[in-house]
Design goal:
Length: 444
């Protein structure tokens, strides 16, 4: 027989303690309550609690002190903060101190029930199957990567908004997915969105949805990205690309934990964990006035920086091996051998495009190498001088490599009068490899 969860409620107002206790007991959660910090500490010292809910203002101190106490002495107990309506500074302070989440007064009981349900799903234990999976998908045994995995495990337990910084191609979306998978929302949707890919005119509808007839072309009701991610995680990639008008609406949705679809008469509560990322320097954009400071403050409660590949060169052999296995499996080919000279060339290369660039270089090398062994010349690495001049804002490297491969293949096709078997032979690759390349590049 399973033990019922036990919660601790800390508030100096008896009526609020009673309301919160009734709400949680209806969720089959037993409750103890305390009117101040001293009583709360006594109760915490005597037994384990599965969840704690505390008011910000208490007669003998504030809830932040209790959050810090619980973080130090009872790290497995998630604690949520009750804050005054609109006091986002207090909410952010609580999250930075280690609070699991916050709820504003007057307490919306629907929001509270969602928060408690999520908190009780938190898994315990250090080396879970999810932790082992993260080592497979976030590869590397460098000290930097060990620290990243430790931070992911830690922030996954919180509902605080996470800002993931790092260069293009470094693996920011992968980190976001792992935070989701290792947290209490793992069984619910993970919805990634590239903010730079949505036309500005459609942005509000894409994020918040719309009602039928709310504008020309709105032929039916449509849920937005927030509704799609409800209960799960919304990942805003390239958040720096959001226009200022949309930044205001996003900030309100985050603060109020509710949205209003275009054409709707009322707001709807949303329960979403927010993660965001960009390769741009958000602090510089705030200083330049192109990104709102209040939104930056709200999404950057905890920052997690993903290192560039050149900052963890020791991980290149493991990453290269993993990439070759994955690429050869997708092409139904034997995995090629990476010659020592080719590996040495990779380990001295600058990698402006990071892990994504490594994958593209190896994919191209696998397609063009002979005798199933990749040599340095198969990598087609730019010369050091060219590499230093390469700018991340210029043409993406994968696009450049695709253009290069297209040119080589099209020349072979022309030379053989579009005889694919002869073209494959001329290129020194198998017919299957050529067919894969033709499909990937969209060459008829």
């Amino acid at each position: 027989m399973h033990r019922r969860p036990l919660a601790l409620i800390v508030d100096d107002e008896p009526d609020i303690r009673e309301l919160l206790t009734l709400t949680l007991e209806r969720m089959a959660i037993d409750c103890h309550s305390a009117p101040d910090l001293m009583q709360a500490r006594k109760l915490l010292a005597g037994r384990h609690y599965d969840f704690c809910l505390t008011d910000m203002r208490l007669p003998d101190g504030d809830g932040i002190e209790l959050v810090r106490d619980i973080q130090r002495h009872h790290p497995d107990t998630p604690v949520a903060m009750i804050t005054a309506h609109g006091n986002m500074e207090a909410a952010v302070t609580a999250l930075k101190a280690g609070a699991f989440d916050f709820v504003s007064k007057p307490v919306d009981l629907h929001v509270l029930r969602n928060l408690v349900s999520t908190a009780l799903k938190l898994h315990k234990g250090e080396d879970t199957p999810q932790e082992r999976r993260s080592r497979d998908s976030l590869l590397g045994e460098s000290e930097t990567m060990r620290q990243i995995r430790h931070k992911i495990a830690k922030v996954a337990r919180s509902q605080a908004p996470i800002y993931i910084s790092g260069e293009s191609g470094s693996g920011k979306e992968l980190v976001a997915r792992l935070i989701h998978e290792k947290g209490p929302r793992a069984a619910l949707p993970f919805v990634p969105v590239n903010c730079g890919a949505i036309p500005e005119a459609l942005m509000e509808s894409e994020f918040f949805g719309h009602k039928k007839g709310s504008f020309t072309g709105a032929h039916s009701n449509k849920d937005g990205l927030f509704q799609a991610a409800d209960g799960g995680t919304l990942f805003l990639d390239e958040v720096a690309d959001l226009p200022l008008q949309m930044q205001v609406k996003l900030l309100r949705a985050i603060q109020e934990k509710s949205i209003r679809p275009i054409g709707a008469q009322q707001e709807f509560s949303i329960d979403v964990r927010l993660l965001s990322a960009t390769h741009k320097n958000l602090a510089e954009l705030v200083a330049a006035g192109t990104f709102r400071q209040d939104l930056f403050y709200r999404i950057n409660v905890i920052e997690l920086h993903v290192p560039s590949l050149r900052q963890r060169r020791d991980d290149i052999p493991m990453l290269a091996e993993h990439c070759l296995k994955k690429i050869s499996r997708s092409m139904a080919l034997d995995k090629p051998t990476l010659s020592p000279a080719a590996l040495a060339a990779l380990q001295t290369y600058h990698f402006p495009g990071n892990v994504r660039e490594l994958e593209n270089i190896l994919e191209r090398a696998l397609t063009l190498c002979e005798k199933n062994t990749i040599q340095p010349e198969d990598l087609h690495l730019p010369h050091a001088a060219e590499n230093r001049e390469h700018d991340l804002e210029s043409q993406p490297l994968d696009t450049y490599l695709d253009h290069q491969a297209r040119d080589v293949i099209e020349k072979a096709l022309i030379e053989t009068k579009y005889n694919k078997t002869a073209s494959a032979k001329l290129l020194g690759i198998s017919f299957r490899q050529l067919r894969y390349r033709l499909k990937k590049l969209g060459i008829d």
